[in-house]
Predict the 3D structure of the following.
Amino acid sequence: MAAAGLETSLPLSSSDLSLVDKALRQLKKLHNLCTDPQLGLRNSPPYLPELMSETSVLLIQVWEPYRGCMAAGSLGPGGDEARYLRIHIRNLLDKANRAVLLFRHGRERIFEETSSY
């Protein structure tokens, strides 16, 4: 258990940045799935495609300084800041993956208004 705590206090690494890229790809995929005209989502709050776009923009803005640090060869954040960013990106990726799975498992039933998907 102690090893896991030490791991999360390490500075951000290239694997963390690859998780960000993966999350951005999943958000784009989810956006594309949500904008299928057959789905017929209404533009009322919360509008899922808009949330995916805004989340992507904010994610890029938050992580951009850390990309610059790593490109310049400096360590970037460590301690609690790195731990928080690492937890945040993993949670976001998990939620995006689960949302994509809803579309995958729902297939055609997702287009039915009474469907639980």
Notes: The CA atoms of residues 22 and 93 lie 7 Å apart.
